[in-house]
Specification:
The complex is a heterotrimer. Helices cover 74% and strands 4% of the residues of chain A. By secondary structure, chain A is mostly helical. In chain A, strands 1-2-3 form a 3-stranded mixed beta sheet. By secondary structure, chain C is mainly α. Helices cover 75% and strands 2% of the residues of chain C. Classes of the chains: A mainly alpha, B mainly alpha, C mainly alpha. The interface between A and C is large, with 46 and 41 residues.
Chain lengths: 494, 137, 503
């Protein structure tokens, strides 16, 4: 199959548009104009991304080189199906999250909102940059940019707790990327002479199996945003951030960038053939499975709603990596699809957690008994988000899990099937009590007085929208599913 | 024994400069008084200057000044003089510059020593260090 | 005119130094513009030379007073020296313009002397870079050192003592170098670098040449503050005034590393250094020790200028280590790092200048709350810090890229590990400063002063004056521009600076 290539500046513009918005955001005199700029940038970004969709769906690839730094390596973009999938998710959710940010930040009257919106825009640029990277160098650049842009967001409160969490965040993220991913990248470059993502990987024939395994693991742990254990503990710590940050960045952009990067490296650099030849994929699968189970177990014991969601995220991220490392058509499709499906589900949950906090100031699950009766819309959205994350119909998460399960069966390694099923059970075990307590607790146990009501409209609408999208994705997963299938077809040719 | 002696004598200039250099280095490192250190530094530099001067020497050669070489008759001048009869002037010329540098360094060092004395009222390093530690506390 | 550029680049600041000193007696306002003009002309000449060298691809040889080599002194402008010349003049010029107000404040009534010394120092560095004569190099080295002592001695109250220590060590270094040149002269009878490079390959087994090599290098190592002869540097740099530190810190060590590279490649020749002596391994270990020691000592510093000074030591290790890897990538990285590190160090010392100007303190606790009050300065400082850590797309990342690649190509994974380790330590160092200036004094965010005002700064923004801010942000921007063009610099300039024999 020949790949149609188009040279266009569009991917670069899609990255830049949110950076261009920053001067306007900073110079805005009033809150309303500032947020208007955010929305305008977000809308333009989404339009730019979507305008490339038909071409990519037809099997085309859009390329653009910004600067040729080394003779054979530069800052360049390449939009393929997988990058497109991720970019659509990120740019759609930016709009929703911006709405939510407005509601949340205003209702809690947070300080330094200009800084907040500016860095949010930078973070989005970096996310799209990672999605559209043509080579590992570009990806690393935007990966670091994202790490640094999210630091002021994570530590937004500027108090002692934020400081120590920020430290942890940087320690893992920067430590991983500088200490492991960077040398791995350079060693790869030395041995293979290229860092471009190729459909079949670049390592085969250049690197010995031992070196390949070492590099794969260095990448796997080095991209610490993917939160593979033991590089995960920054994620719960980073939950000190304001909820919209947690929602977009720590359920969608940051962690998904991690998972995305790992998947890109596994497929585009290491290569599926190389992984299979030396059974490296099995080791990766085992590490991912371990993370899935352990994270789910820890999530059970967490009382803070955001912390529980954080551990749930850690587990779900490893689904993506597990799916891809199965190296079967369905498994890989499922893993990639899970990026999208989990994003919509998990962001709903975070929005709900934030909405509850806005309305009541409560963070712990044990204090939420009966909240469903006071905030029925929020908690219904929560239910759908939870269903999607667990992987039950009628939500999008079901589709991706379906493919993942098919993948484990195709690969013939039923251990992983067991991992997936038991994890789903655990997911249910840690989400249903929340929901059950919220709606079906006994009257005497009700912890809320009558004056508690739904959060402001700007906080309630976003979770409803994302929950709605989750349901729609169950019935119409085509755009994401087709993109994932297209990409998988490209790399394993099946 | 004899061979060592002859080695020492044959390379007397080397031995001299090394001994002088070590004396200077010792003073710079071990002495407590800043002025003594500066003196050591000067000895250290002078040792190398002497080394240069000595390498220009040749047995039986004279200073490289042409007694009859003036006038317009260049060709004849060159023919008359054999390079072997003269010591090499280049190292000596170089040392003119090095001496200037050495003097300048000495001057700057002494100026700094005066400033140090004005600041601390002493030139003994241990006393200055004591004052610095006291300031920290 | 263009044929005299190699002379102009040094003669202009040298004469201007006299003019500045003299005019200072007449009017205190004159020396500064004189110095700026001279450095600007010098910068233009250097840039002209670089363009000339790159377009023609030829080495320019300028005979002083018309005497031909090897008898006369020649100035050699090739790819290697041309780019270093541009860096020197650019850094000196930018730092001077940046410090216009600081000079008025810190050197009141001494403007003539200060500007004159500043020019002399720069002229010396330019000469060191351009000269093709081993002894002339010694003289210029001492000119730089002497004017450097004076510049540093003008600093804080403790500066004279620190300078005196620097002077002792510096003199030892320079004298060692002089001794080495003496032995080289005994062995070869020549002082011209090009001439030496043609003689030495014929006498590689000579023990005199070996001794000359060792003693020259030892002298240079002392001068560039390699471990264990690094003790003078932090004291001297941190006690000097911010104006002098902004000139001396970025340039002195870098130019000394350049001298080392020139002497190794173009006097003793690469064959001798890398193949015959095969001293690379030991030198890289020495470099690793310097890097690790510099980084770890920086961790212990509470004074930010001292901390930056220790980082300089560690950066010297990068360059020396990269060079002695002995392959094209490593040497490219080393030379590229000379350029990048000069700009990086300039950026952080300019930032230090602004902090000092603003707070009057040099302890890291004086940085509290600066993110809120000086957002633009801090943005520039963050870029500088990231560049030193080595985060793309800043230039520090790309020189590290070459250095690490060189380490991998040479199979020296210890060097690679040390580089990565230093990057991580640098990250800790800078984020510690960022943390202090970002978080402290802690705000209780629910009772912040900006309550309900729709966000915005917590305290009033009071930036540095534009005269300081603009040059500083320019330099920070350059860090990114240099980063993006590092491949171009390497393929178009550094490629030709390295002898073809090195793979």
């Amino acid at each position: 199959m020949s790949i149609e290539t188009l040279i266009s500046i569009k991917p670069f513009l899609a990255v830049l548009v949110s950076l261009f918005a920053i001067p306007f955001i900073i110079s805005s005199r009033s809150q309303n104009t500032r947020e208007a700029w955010t929305f305008i940038a977000a809308a333009i970004k989404l339009i730019l991304v979507l305008s490339m969709l038909p071409f990519v769906l037809n099997g085309g690839v859009i390329e653009y080189t910004v600067v040729q730094i080394f003779p054979d390596l530069g800052i360049s973009f390449r939009v393929d199906a997988f990058g497109m999938l991720f970019a659509i998710v990120a740019s759609t959710l930016w709009i929703v999250t911006s709405m939510y940010s407005v509601g949340y930040m205003r209702s809690l009257d947070e300080h330094s909102q200009t800084r907040y919106f500016s860095f949010f825009a930078v973070a989005l640029s970096a996310t799209i940059g990672v999605a559209f990277s043509a080579n590992l160098l570009t990806m690393y650049l935007f990966y670091e940019m994202l790490s640094l842009a999210t630091y002021p967001l994570v530590t937004h409160h500027q108090d002692q707790e934020a400081k120590s969490s920020g430290r942890k965040y940087l320690l893992y993220i920067l430590g991983g990327s500088i200490g492991l991913a960077l040398p791995a990248m350079l060693i790869t470059y030395h041995f293979t002479g290229t860092l471009d993502f190729a459909a079949q990987g670049v390592m085969a024939g250049h690197v010995t199996s031992g070196m390949g395994l070492m590099l794969t693991l260095m990448f796997l742990f080095g991209f610490a945003k993917a939160a593979i254990m033991p590089m995960h503990s920054w994620l719960p710590a980073a939950m000190v951030a304001p909820t919209p940050v947690s929602a977009l960045l720590h359920a969608v952009a940051v962690v998904k960038v991690g998972a995305f990067s790992v998947v890109r490296v596994l497929t585009g650099i290491v290569g599926t053939g190389f992984l299979a030849d030396f059974n490296i994929n099995f080791i990766v699968s085992v590490i991912a499975s371990f993370t899935i189970i352990v994270a789910s177990l820890i999530a059970l014991s967490q009382d803070g709603l955001k912390r529980r969601l954080a551990f749930s995220t850690i587990g779900q991220l490893s689904y993506i990596i597990l799916g891809v490392s199965l190296l079967t058509t369905s498994g890989m499709t499922g893993g990639m699809l899970h990026i999208a499906m989990h994003a919509f589900g998990k962001i709903t949950l975070f929005f709900c957690a934030g909405a509850i906090f806005c309305a009541t100031g409560i963070k712990n699950i044990s204090e939420m008994k009966g909240i469903g009766r006071k905030m029925p819309i929020t908690m219904t959205a929560f239910l759908f988000g939870a269903l999607s994350v667990i992987g039950l119909p009628p939500c999008g998460g079901f589709i991706s899990k379906w493919y993942l399960v098919l993948g484990t069966i195709e690969s013939g390694q039923l251990v992983f099937l067991f991992v997936l099923l038991s994890s789903s059970f655990l997911n249910a075990a840690y989400f249903f009590p929340v929901f059950y307590n919220a709606f079906f607790c006994h009257k005497d146990e009700m912890m809320f007085e009558d004056k508690v009501d739904e959060a402001p409209l700007w906080c309630v609408a976003p979770p409803v929208i994302t929950a709605g999208i989750s349901v729609i994705l169950f019935f119409y997963p085509q755009p994401f599913l087709n993109l994932a299938k297209l990409f998988v077809q490209n790399i394993i040719g099946g | 024994m004899e061979s060592i002696l002859s080695l020492i004598i044959a390379k007397a200039n080397f031995w001299t400069y090394i001994i002088l250099m070590m004396v200077g280095l010792y003073a710079m490192i071990a002495k407590n008084n800043l002025v003594k250190k500066i003196v050591g530094m000067s000895i250290f530099q002078t040792a190398v200057i002497l080394f240069y001067v000595s390498i220009g020497c040749k047995k039986g050669a004279t200073i490289p000044i042409l007694q009859h070489g003036h006038g317009s008759d260049h060709g004849a001048g060159h023919a008359l003089f054999n390079a072997i009869d003269y010591i090499n002037p280049l190292p000596h010329v170089l040392m003119l510059t090095a001496i200037v540098v050495g003097v300048a360094t000495l001057g700057v060092a002494l100026a700094l020593a005066i400033k140090v004395y004005k600041e601390y009222g002493t030139l003994e390093e241990d006393e200055i260090n004591k004052q610095l530690i006291d300031q920290m506390e | 005119m263009t044929s005299n550029l190699p002379a102009l680049v040094i003669v202009v600041p040298l004469f201007a130094c006299l003019v500045a000193a003299a005019s200072g007696w007449i009017d205190r306002r004159v020396p500064f513009p004189v110095a700026v003009t001279a450095l600007f002309l010098s910068f233009l000449s250097a840039a002209g030379l670089l363009v000339q060298v790159v377009t023609t691809g030829l080495t320019l040889e300028y005979r002083l007073a018309g005497w031909a080599a090897p008898m006369g002194i020649v100035y050699v402008i090739d790819h290697l020296s041309a780019i270093v010349l541009v860096v020197i003049t650019a850094v000196a010029l930018t730092n001077l313009i940046f410090n216009k107000d600081n000079i008025k404040r810190e050197f009141k009534d001494k403007e003539g002397a200060f500007n004159s010394l500043y020019l002399l120092f720069t002229a010396g560095l330019i000469g060191m870079t351009a000269t093709g004569d081993a002894f002339n190099l010694y003289v210029l080295l001492e000119i730089v050192s002497l004017s450097g002592y004076a510049l540093i001695g003008l600093g804080t109250k403790r500066a004279p003592l620190a300078t005196l220590n620097y002077l002792f060590i510096g003199t030892i270094g320079a004298t060692f170098y002089l001794l080495g040149v003496g032995y080289l002269y005994i062995a070869t009878g020549s002082l011209n670098m090009g001439d030496l490079a043609s003689i030495i390959p014929g006498m590689m087994d000579s023990s005199i040449v070996l001794f000359a090599f060792i003693i020259c290098l030892a002298g240079l190592f002392v001068k560039m503050a390699m471990f264990p002869a690094h003790g003078w540097l932090p004291g001297a740099y941190s006690e000097s005034s911010t104006v002098s530190a902004g000139l001396i810190a970025p340039l002195t060590t870098k130019v000394t590393v350049y001298i080392m590279i020139r002497i190794c490649l173009y006097v003793f020749t690469a064959d001798y250094v890398f193949d015959h002596l095969d001293c690379g391994k030991i030198m890289v270990w020495l470099a690793i020790a310097t890097m690790v020691f510099g980084s770890l000592s920086a961790l212990a510093q509470k004074n930010y200028k001292r901390m930056f000074s220790y980082i300089i030591i560690s950066e010297v290790g990068y360059m020396v280590g990269g060079f002695f890897l002995g392959n094209r990538l490593g040497i490219s990285g080393s030379i590229l790092h000379i350029v990048n590190d000069a700009v990086m160090t300039l950026a952080v010392f300019m930032a230090a200048g602004i902090f000092f100007w603003k707070t009057g303190g040099e302890s890291r606790n004086d940085l509290k709350g600066l993110f809120a009050s000086m957002p633009f300065t801090m943005a520039g400082f963050v870029i500088g810090g990231l560049s030193i850590i080595g985060v793309p797309p800043t230039c520090g990342f790309f020189s590290k890229w070459y250095l690490v690649s060189g380490g991998i190509a040479a199979g020296n994974y210890f060097f690679v590990a040390a580089l990565i380790f230093c990057s991580l330590v640098n990250a800790v160092l800078f984020f510690r400063l960022f943390e202090i200036s970002f978080f402290e004094p802690f705000v209780d965010h629910h009772h912040a002063a900006s309550h309900g005002s729709g966000g915005g700064a917590v305290s009033v923004v009071r930036e540095a004056p534009l005269g300081m801010l603009i040059p500083f942000l320019f330099v920070s921007g350059m860090l990114i521009v240099l980063g993006l063009y590092s491949g171009t610099i390497v393929t178009n300039i550094l490629q030709f600076a390295i002898p073809t024999g090195i793979i």
